[in-house]
Amino acid sequence: MSFSAWISAHYEEQGPVKWLAFALEMIAATTLFLLMLLTCSDVVGRYFLSNSIDGTTELTEIALAILIFAEMPVITWRGGHVVVDILDRMMGPTVIKLLGLFSVFLIASSLYFIATQIYFLAERSFRRNEVTEFLQLPVGLIVEYIAFMSWITAATLLSYGVYRLLWLSRD
Questions:
Q1: Which residues of 99-126 are buried (b: 16+ CB within 10 A; e: fewer)?
Q2: pTM exceeding 0.85
Q3: Which residues contact 122 (CB under 8 A, 6 or more apart)?
Q4: In 128-169, which ranges are continuous DSSP H helix?
Q5: Residue 40: CB partners within 8 Å, gap ≥ 6?
Q6: Cβ proximity of 77 and 164 under 8 Å
Q7: Which tens digits make up the pLDDT trace of 105-120?
Q8: Which in 28, 48, 52, 138 has the greatest CB count within 10 A?
Q9: Is the CB of residue 135 less than 8 Å from the CB of residue 71?
């Protein structure tokens, strides 16, 4: 089986979104694997060598930010969030689609404005030359990554989320 055929068999998205989903999930999987190696190495070093890895807490926090915000666009456009559908049986499919569209636009606009504020915080971190406590890594880079991934989530939610809601959910 070729790589492209494997991607097509395991990802239901269409076009470039399929490759974007794969790339983001590879980033998340690699980060999770490196986080596992870091934690295991730190525990082995602490208990068997009496020396832990410096900055493990900071690296764990950064890895969690990378992991969460790499998966956020994929989960959002797949509709993988928790949904309470108590009233769906009492409403018609048209009302449900309209409420779905309203929620897509509400979530996307919220993500956009939150990302804008986060980006301003990143700019402030760069101006102040803020760095992490132990490893002296620039805080602005991590905060800027969170802002960009939030913008990507908002954009993909507006495009592919609306597409899925209107054209792929034919009832």
A1: ebeebbeebbeebbeebeebbebbeebe
A2: no
A3: 140, 141, 143, 144, 146, 147
A4: 139-156, 162-163
A5: none
A6: yes
A7: 888 999 999 999 999 9
A8: 28
A9: no
